[in-house]
Amino acid sequence: MAQVLEFKLPDLGEGLTEAEIVRWLVEVGDVVVVDQPVVEVETAKAMVEVPCPYGGVVTARFGAEGTELPVGAPLLTVAVGRTADGRPAGDGSGAGTDGAKDGASAEGSGNVLVGYGTSEAPARRRRVRPAPPGVNGRPKAPEPVRDTRPTETPSTPTGRAAPADGPVPVISPLVRRLARQNGLDLRKLTGSGPDGLILRADVEHALRAGDTRDRPDTTKATAAPAAAASGVGTASVTRVPLKGIRGAVADKLSRSRTEIPDATCWVDADATELMRTRAAMNAAGGPKISVLALLARICTAALARFPELNSSVDTEAREIVRYADVHLGFAAQTERGLVVPVVRDAHTRDAESLTAEFARLTEAAREGTLTPAQLTGGTFTLNNYGVLGVDGSTPIINHPEAAMLGVGRIVPKPWVHEGELAVRQVVQLSLTFDHRVCDGGTAGGFLRYVADCVEQPAVLLRTL
């Protein structure tokens, strides 16, 4: 006897409470196997493919693309097992069902993340038309949710808009989301990529050209009472929901400022010798060493001398928790917002390894493929805001960590060197720290050691 099981949005870990549906990977009527990814969702931390713990026929989907669902809300229903006449659930023809027999298993793995559980390849999807109630004694399956998304097709090679009877040639979920957020109909675009593939540049060009005249106005909102009182018109007011990464950042920074009594100290340093050292390393051949990697190596050496800053505060137990390992977070600005990927065991890595790991995590951050595990668990953060073209900042500590080193841009400035005025490569370093874990003497000692290593990289040789 067939049984209809409901698959709910699972807990994706790390305290996430909701997720936005980015793309459905299955249609109503498709045959799925255990652990087959069925939907791609975006959380406040990353994009995740969610596998279904049941094997059978998809009978309903809940939520269109762009819908935000809380953890525990229904995602889809799957008919599993066999009907009274021995056929797989949901099979309406009685022929050609052999391909679904193995996949329509009534047992679920219970897994919620891709990469765990069964290792067998997913079965090829088939569209199966549910039969009406009472046919051959089969029970009636729940009525499927109709897919109300506009039909999308790729652009034709001649540049004309393609007919609306197939999928739009878009690979990147970020491109779809950019179009969706701006109310842009992708069917009206002609892609400039291979075989008419729509690229982000095509969407941005359409937005700049004003090719969105008939999109719905979703940004205008009723003016707040304060705005009305001040005479500001409703047309000049916009409301942006605090959700996704922006909402997660807002919550975390607010909590940091609420809980952590932070203080900041800073110092200017002559980075000329550091830049010369990097140039000599890169001239010797092999992978190029990044400035960020050298600064990270300096950070790990400084934390070995001042372990008080590689810690957090357990407010409930009223204890300072010090960590033996350094899991170094670094701030990365992406199209989705600010994220802080974490380099695990940074204290065990050399400059080459750090450079490679920074590059790998940065690329994943830009593509939106970082997992929650790669965005959490840091013990100290390195913030290179110099790439934004600024000299200094007083950053907010990445809760629950206890400190963050900020690095400004490295620029030529007048500097007294060996008793004479000279033009040197100068950088401003700042340290924001939790005053509960240490006093100013410890924080100042840490920052001074970092500055000494920047000015004289040979200082590091003592601990290498």
Automatic annotation (TrEMBL):
From start to end residue, where is composition biased (Basic and acidic residues)? 140-150
Matching entries from SUPFAM superfamilies are given as: CoA-dependent acyltransferases, Peripheral subunit-binding domain of 2-oxo acid dehydrogenase complex, Single hybrid motif
The Lipoyl-binding domain extends over 4-79
Q: Which UniProt keywords apply?
A: Acyltransferase, Lipoyl, Transferase
Domain Peripheral subunit-binding (PSBD) as annotated: residue spans: 170-207
Tell me its family: Belongs to the 2-oxoacid dehydrogenase family.
Protein name, please?
Answer: Dihydrolipoamide acetyltransferase component of pyruvate dehydrogenase complex
Native organism is Streptomyces labedae
